[in-house]
Amino acid sequence: MSLDAHPQAPAATPSAVAAQNLTKTYGTGPMAVTALDDVSVAFERGRFTAIMGPSGSGKSTLMHCLATLDTPTSGALSLGGTRVDGLNDDALTTLRRDRVGFVFQAFNLVPTLTALQNILLPLELAGAKPDNAWLDELVRRLGLGDRLGHKPHELSGGQQQRVAVARALLPRPDVVFGDEPTGNLDSTSGAEVLGLLQRSAHEDGQTVIMVTHDPVAASAADRVVLLKDGRLAGEILNPQVQQVSDALAQLGAIQ
User: Record's superkingdom (predicted)?
Assistant: First the structure.
């Protein structure tokens, strides 16, 4: 997989997502497992960040807590300056619907719906109408114009993931979370998706946070946040593939 040089990112702006002393423990007593251990980290608006670490480092748990898909045991979490820890289920559902987008490794498309119907589904569930000009721009940008009437099984893996990216971006969320978004793609399709996420951050001002195990994918980001044993283990700015590989090797990740 190869990528062009990073587009110039905009100047630093206030945090879109911030965690303070975030801890997540599963189980109790001698069987308790601490997946996150007093993690404090912030993610700036308009930046693309990769979260990496060895297996069991807590990277997926951190993303799930940041995205409000999981509830931390303790600590503070804010999204766009709004404290979200402590919100009830209805408020969290509304927040995820209106302010958070998701791109998953498995695409998570509804098999009985067309590509266009999948893209529009979150807005329809929310009873909202799409911005048609933005929809047209996304379709053009993602090269989906001749695929909108196709169902997922009629699309390649790369096309399915582009539909998932369009679905995530259409509501213009504050933050887009990617859970191994290139994990099921070939190198060419993976590079295309990473380029789209770069553009979403640098041109559209959206915050992109991606969990990945792939140093090449991570090199598309502006920043890599490293975890080990549930704790922050450093970061890399303007990452290069070899830098990321070396850092993971030092943390004990198998490459």
Answer: Bacteria
Number of domains in the chain: 1
Rounded to an integer, the average pLDDT of 70-94 is: 90
CATH classification of the domain holding 224 = 3.40.50.300
Neighbours of 190 (CB within 10 A): 23
Token pair for residue 3? 């990528």
The owner of tokens 């251990």 is: 37
Is residue 151 a part of any domain in this protein?
yes
Buried b (16+ CB within 10 A) or exposed e, 19-57: beebbbeeeeeeeeebbbbebebebbbbbbbbbbbbeeb
* pTM exceeds 0.70: yes
Amino acid in the structure at residue 98 = D
State yes or no: pLDDT of 202 exceeds 80: yes
